[in-house]
Amino acid sequence: MSGTNVCVIIAARNAAETITTAITSALLEPEVSEIVVVDDASTDATEAMARATDDGSGRLLVLRLDVNRGPSFARNMAIRQSRAPLISILDADDFFLPGRFARLVASDDWELVADNIVFVEHASVRDVLSGRVAHFDADPTHLDVTQFIAGNISSRGARRGELGFLKPVMRRAMLEAHGLHYDEQLRLGEDYALYAEAMLKGARFKLIRSCGYCAIVRPNSLSGQHRTEDLRRLADADLRLLAQAGLATAHRPILRRHERHVRDKYRLRHFLDLKAANGLSSAMAFAFASPANLGAVAKGVTLDKLEPLRLALSSAPKGCEPSTRYLMPGTASAGGSA
């Protein structure tokens, strides 16, 4: 297709150990014409490491914030600074696999297009870099908005695999036509909120199952940490989507379901926070303030108590979790694994 210039956006905070790999993986992609890194007030050498990765091609721009503003603010800032017609998000501790963009932008039937993600324990990164990744058939399909939102409702006990993890290439023209940007109130679920809003406005989201993005699983990852308040703000983002003019009636039930799912997580976390900070009486006052609070707290506390039993009855032996997994299942291509 024409116009395959891609801008890669990297919001980075305290990513000195990983930023070189992330930037290098983008520089190696011939479709990438710009890379904009925003150092979100790191306290380590992230900025210096990013600048040192410059290959002299003139494609890398490194910006720095002196006050931490969060990934949504950093990404919006980077998008404003860029010009390429296609925008791709890369987390600072992840990297692209070779040939990713050639596969993604091979057709024109999308406003967002994403591929499979391989999740890798940090100790196994070398295996991925050496090419040990499953080769899946592309098997292209288009997500509808109901599928996408439902795919962001997690199940207790299941390994996380929400579709909000997807890292699509997005058309700048689509974002500008609808006035879309990352919600800067969000530090959790900002990707989900942007993609859902785009799809509700008619954007086509194409999905292929071949793998081009490697996400590193770290116990101390910033993306794995969030405040109780972040859950409330994500639930409120669903309410804003529900309040949009012209929202199709068919889309309301799944948005309400996602909002309740996130809100119930918030209610349980808030109950536990109150109990730890102010004692059981304060927590119980919150629980009994409404039937919705009480239901969420009662269910959550019960499931927490049953969690050790669930783990004991689990068929997977402890310590035997695979070090590599894929966001979506796929059919092995003729080439198999590299």
UniProtKB/TrEMBL annotation:
A Pfam family recorded for this sequence: Glycos_transf_2
Glycosyltransferase 2-like domain sequence ranges: 7-121
InterPro entries assigned: Glyco_trans_2-like, Glycosyltransf_2, Nucleotide-diphossugar_trans
This protein's name: Glycosyltransferase family 2 protein
Species, as recorded: Aminobacter anthyllidis
